Amino acid sequence: MGSEGRRGDSVNRVWYGFAGLLAAAPPVTAQLSARADVSAGGRYVWHGVSRAAGLVAQPSLAVGFRLPRLSLEGGAVLHYELDRVSAGELSETGAGDRHLGEEDFWGRAALVIGPTRLNAGVVRYVFRGDPAQGGLGSARNTTEIYAALSTTSRYVNPTLEAWWDVERVRGAFLRASVDLPILGWPFPPYAFVFVQGELGLNVGQGPNAARPAELSNFDARGPTHVGLGMGTELRACRLSGIGWTTFALGLRSQLNLDDATRIAGTGRKRDVNVWLWTGITVVLGGDARSRQ
Q1: I need a labelling partner for 122 at 20 to 30 A (CA). Which of 63, 65, 169, 288 fits?
Q2: Contact 79, 100 (CB under 8 A)
Q3: The pLDDT of residue 25
Q4: pTM, whole model, 2 decimals?
Q5: What is the C-alpha separation between 136 and 260, in angstroms, rounded?
C-alpha cells in the first residue's frame, strides 16, 4: 500500500475513534446539545494565512453530548466567498463567480477540571476551488489533529494550541492566544466587550528538503504572525426556555511575520491586515440550559 493509502487509513481510524466515543456516551446522564453559527468577515484567515480577501460567509453546525466534566461533539463549517473574484486576487475559489471555497469537518473531546479545559480533536479540510483559475483544489485536501489547554479566570483567559498536519504537510504549528474581558453588562440582555491577542509559531509546516513532494503552509520556522482584536457580544434573547441567541461584532488586526502570511494576492504582499467580522450563534439543548 502506498503512503497516501496509509495516511488515509490513519485518518479513518481517528474518525472511527471519535464516532465510537459518541456512540458510547451514556444516554441517561448525557445532555444533547446543538449549535448553529453564521459569521461573515472581510477576510478569511487560517493559522495566520489569508485565504480569501473579500467578503466571506461561514455557516456552521455542531452537535454533541455533554457530561458533568466531559463533552464530545462534531460538526462542519462551510466557507463561501460572496464577492466576484478577479484574476490575481486572493481567493480559494479562483477567478469567477462567488461560490463555496472550503468545507471543514471536525470532531473533538473536551475535559473540564475546575477552571482548566483540555481539548483534543481532528479537522478534515476539503477545498472546492478551481486551480486553473488560481483557486485551491482537491490536491490541497488535508487533515490536522490538535490538542489545546485553556484556563478561565475573572480577568484573563489564556489558551495554548498544538496542531499537527498528518496528511499533506506533516508538521506542527503552535498558537498561543488570550481573551481579556474588559466590560460586561450582567443584566438581560447580557453584553460583553473583550480584547483578543494571539501569536502563531511554525515548528514544522514549512518546506521540507527531505520530502519535496509535500506541501508547506509557511515559508520558514519561527513566528508567523501576531494578532490583536476587539469584539462585543450581545446575548439577545432566549428561545422559549430552550436556548440563547447571541450576536457578535468585532475588529481584527494582524502583523504578518512570515512570507506566507504576508501574501495578499499574485505578486502582492502586506505586512499588516485589518478587517471587520460579525456573527450570530443559536445554542440549543444542554449547553443552553446550563447558561440560563
Answers
A1: 288
A2: yes
A3: 46
A4: 0.84
A5: 15
